[in-house]
Design a protein that fits this description.
The complex is a heterodimer of chains A (165) and B (628). Chain A has 165 residues and is of the alpha+beta class. Chain A contains five helices and eight strands. The chains are: A alpha+beta (165), B alpha+beta (628).
């Protein structure tokens, strides 16, 4: 039985597997802009201290706070996929959505001054390019329920066999 | 121009000025990046004959072709100055985000001139250069300094290369650190300290554009996936510290300051033992799909909490080489060196020299007085607490740490002059740079290869231990092939060090690591990035040119044939235990091999470079100055 009502997929990163190489950022920025610039990536790797590493992209939250926060109704959420859409004519780059996002997954494009976030590479046949490229298979397209199942499995393994196995 | 901006940034610390210099595309085709470009910038900007710790010695930083692109392991940068340890060119490489930030800031290279009257750090914010006060950062460790700068500027994307307390105090083998990686050898930290430069920080926001992204991405994807397979398994699982047991079996694991090549506690300081008992996480440099940095943490005992990425070279120097069989001490020592900003290898070998000097009675207990031990202490081999205390004393230049901060060559010369001793006989260096973790006595090709390296005793610049160990040549004897083997091995490494690219990827292009396997793919990567039309021969020339400019620098600084020497012990004292016992590299063998090497390089018998040779390499201006 599902433990979350959200069926939306999003990209998750396993911090145990992520080594912080940033290939996801290179390929994302290229896919979206035609140039390599990790500043322009819609998935962002984070390193806090040497060994705490992960990557973060839009979590396609239900009742997404960014959509609610937008004062100009420029953001909307695709009902089928949960992907956040930005109406470029309405968005004025005020960054309220950036502040509203608990995951730091939204940024303002410095050139166009419009909000940007992961769209799961919706128009590409082979899906999210970061997932395809991740050399460590740390990135995955998942749903909250799949994540919960995985957490339960990991917990059993850790409690029965011990960590690191 | 793709892959480059065509611009070099000059920063003058004395006058707080900066300016831009344009370089033509032809210049880039010859010097490319990494160690070669950094060396060339040093050649162009140094006051010839200057004291390495004077304002006339520039700090030269170079990026590379593949930085800021998805080309695997291409996120590296080169650093060159005249080395305070060797008096010749000191060229180092480091990896990761600093390189990428530099590329995106729009500069292909940086030359830092002069010296600041007060402690500063420089911030390059794309095109803008500012000089910021750094006195509040003094005494801070390397990682702490990076973090403090990010916090101060409020941007976690700012990348900094920093020095630790050891660099501030001019320890001659202090290093420069960025993102947990080090431009480790030849004493760059002391050069930065002499200029009162605590850090160099970069924020780079520009796009990186390449000539043919589709082709480039196709290659990158395949290489990244191949890099998850058997060709890199050694690096991905155990890391380079897997060498401990291999070297021990071959009788080549430096033990107790190179007195022997076999260590009774090798199992307990091995990569395998570290993996089983201390592993926390594997991390990568920016742009690297391999991820070789094996983070190991001490869980118990007096050094609980110490953590570092453990590389073989740091490990041997701070375990077997000091007779230390408790690897927790070694992890502590490596962590201490990394945060203090000192080269683990030179630190370990210099402490090894001090321990042997103590055991031989040249240094006495009272020579080791310090705040912690006012009566002094007895640093026998195997004494972990003594090793940690000595590393701290070196970092802080406390007590005898002030002498040890000079490295084995200068420290032994000073001690021997004062006491009439002969400690130079166990000072394990070449050109003043301490040896790496392979005993030279039964690696005859390596003995040649490492002795001719321009920066001194370095296994990265000349991996000639490889043909010896792989059995491509007989490692116990000398023959007429060794000059050629040394040349080819050295130039092969120089290609990687110049692009720059990490050599751990070398088998992942086609499965074959040799020139025929790697160069055609590297040529295509270069062409897809830059739009050039490089062929196999052009890639091959990158290496020869890199060696030529570095050697030319040394010649202009007074190099002569006798500077390509071996440590006294390697020529006079054989080991008594293990698979390499009984061997020496005699002076006759060594001089014979040097003849072979200079000849196959097309140099004179004195090791100088003919004018025509330099002209053929496209270095007319160098030919004019030092060609014969």
């Amino acid at each position: 039985m599902p433990t979350s009502t959200s069926k939306y997929q999003y990209i998750t990163c396993d911090p145990q597997k992520c080594v912080g190489c940033q290939l996801c950022e290179y390929v994302c920025s290229f896919t979206k802009t035609g140039a390599f610039n990790t500043y322009r990536s819609r998935i962002r790797t984070v390193r806090v201290q040497e060994i705490l590493i992960t990557a973060v992209a839009c979590r396609t939250c239900e009742n997404a706070p960014c959509v609610i926060a937008c004062p100009r109704e420029a953001l909307s959420q695709d009902r089928e996929t949960g992907v956040i859409r930005v109406d470029e004519a309405r968005c004025d780059g005020c960054a309220w959505c950036v502040e509203a996002c608990d995951f730091g997954a939204i940024s303002i494009n410095p050139a166009t001054k419009r909000a940007e976030m992961c769209d799961l590479c919706g128009t590409l046949e082979d899906g999210p390019q970061c997932v395809k490229w991740c050399p460590k298979e740390a990135l995955e397209l998942t749903t909250p329920d799949q994540q919960a199942q995985k957490a339960r499995h990991d917990l059993v393994k850790e409690e029965v066999i011990g960590s690191g196995s | 121009m793709y892959g480059y901006s065509g611009k070099i940034l000059h920063v003058d610390l004395t006058n707080r000025k900066s300016w831009s210099e344009s370089k033509p595309e032809e210049w880039y085709k010859i010097y490319i990046g990494g160690v070669s470009m950094a060396a060339r910038l040093c050649w162009e900007n140094i006051e010839v004959g200057c004291d390495p710790l004077s304002p006339g010695n520039p700090i030269c930083i170079a990026g590379g072709i593949f930085v800021g692109t998805p080309v695997p392991v291409g996120g590296k940068w080169g650093l060159a100055s005249k080395s305070p340890l060797t008096g010749f060119l000191g060229d180092s490489l480091s990896g990761s985000w600093f390189a990428v930030a530099l590329k995106r800031s729009g500069w292909d290279g940086i030359v830092i001139h002069g010296a600041s009257p007060e402690w500063v750090y420089v911030l390059v914010d794309d095109d803008k250069v500012t000089f910021r006060p750094a006195s509040h950062l003094l005494g801070k460790g390397t990682f702490e300094t990076e973090e403090a700068i990010r916090e101060e500027l409020g941007d976690d994307q700012v990348r900094s290369a920093t020095i630790g307390p050891a660099g501030e105090k001019l320890v001659l083998y202090a290093n420069v650190t960025n993102d947990g990686r080090q431009a480790g050898r030849t004493g760059h930290g002391a050069v930065w300290g002499s200029k009162k430069l605590k850090a160099f920080s970069v924020r780079g926001t520009h796009d990186v554009k390449v000539a043919d992204p589709e082709t480039l991405l196709k290659f990158c994807f395949d290489i990244s996936k191949t890099a998850q397979g058997k060709y890199t398994e050694k690096y991905r699982v155990l890391g380079t510290s897997s060498n401990v047991l291999s070297m021990n079996r071959l009788g080549l694991l430096p033990t107790r300051n190179y007195q022997e090549g076999e260590f009774e506690d090798a199992e307990r300081v091995s990569g395998e033992y570290l993996y089983e008992n201390f592993r926390v996480k594997t991390i990568a440099c920016a742009q690297c799909p391999i991820a070789c940095e094996q983070m190991r943490r001490v869980k118990d005992g007096p050094y609980a909490g110490a953590m570092s990425g453990i590389e073989y070279e740091s490990l041997y120097a701070l375990s077997s080489n000091l007779g230390i069989g408790d690897v927790r001490v070694s992890i502590k020592l490596i962590d201490l060196c990394d945060q203090g900003g000192i080269d683990t290898m030179s630190t370990g070998v210099t402490i090894g020299w001090a321990m042997e000097s103590f055991e031989r009675g040249v240094l006495k207990k009272e020579d080791f007085k310090c705040a912690k031990y006012p009566e002094g202490f007895e640093p026998n081999f195997g004494n972990g607490d003594a090793a940690v205390t000595l590393a701290e004393m070196i970092r802080d230049r406390e007590g005898i740490g002030d002498l040890l901060a000079l490295g084995t060559r200068k420290a032994s010369a000073k001690l021997d002059a004062e006491r009439g001793s002969e400690s130079f006989k166990w000072a394990m260096h070449i050109k003043g740079l301490e040896l790496p973790g392979y005993d030279l006595r039964a690696l005859k090709t390596f003995a040649l290869g490492i002795s001719v390296v321009t920066r001194g005793a370095c296994h990265n610049r000349s991996a000639t231990y490889d043909p010896d160990i792989q059995g491509e040549v007989n490692r116990f004897t000398v023959d007429e092939t060794r000059g050629k083997v040394a040349r080819e091995t050295e130039e092969y490494a120089a290609v990687y060090d110049t692009l720059p690219m990490c050599k751990f990827i070398r088998r992942c292009f086609t499965g074959k690591a040799d020139r025929s396997g790697a160069w055609p793919v590297i040529a295509q990567l270069i062409n897809a990035t830059t739009g050039w039309n490089f062929q196999y021969e052009d890639v091959d020339l990158i290496g020869e040119r890199a060696i030529a400019i570095k050697k030319a620098f040394n010649i202009r600084e007074g190099w002569t044939r006798k500077d390509d020497h071996l440590p006294w012990r390697v020529q006079h004292e054989a080991m008594t235990k293990g698979a390499s016992a009984g061997y020496l590299v005699t002076e006759e063998e060594h001089e014979y091999m040097k003849d072979l090497y200079y000849e196959v390089k097309g140099w004179t018998k004195d090791g100088l470079i003919p004018k025509q040779k330099l002209i053929d390499l496209g270095m007319q201006d160098v030919a004019k100055e030092i060609g014969v």
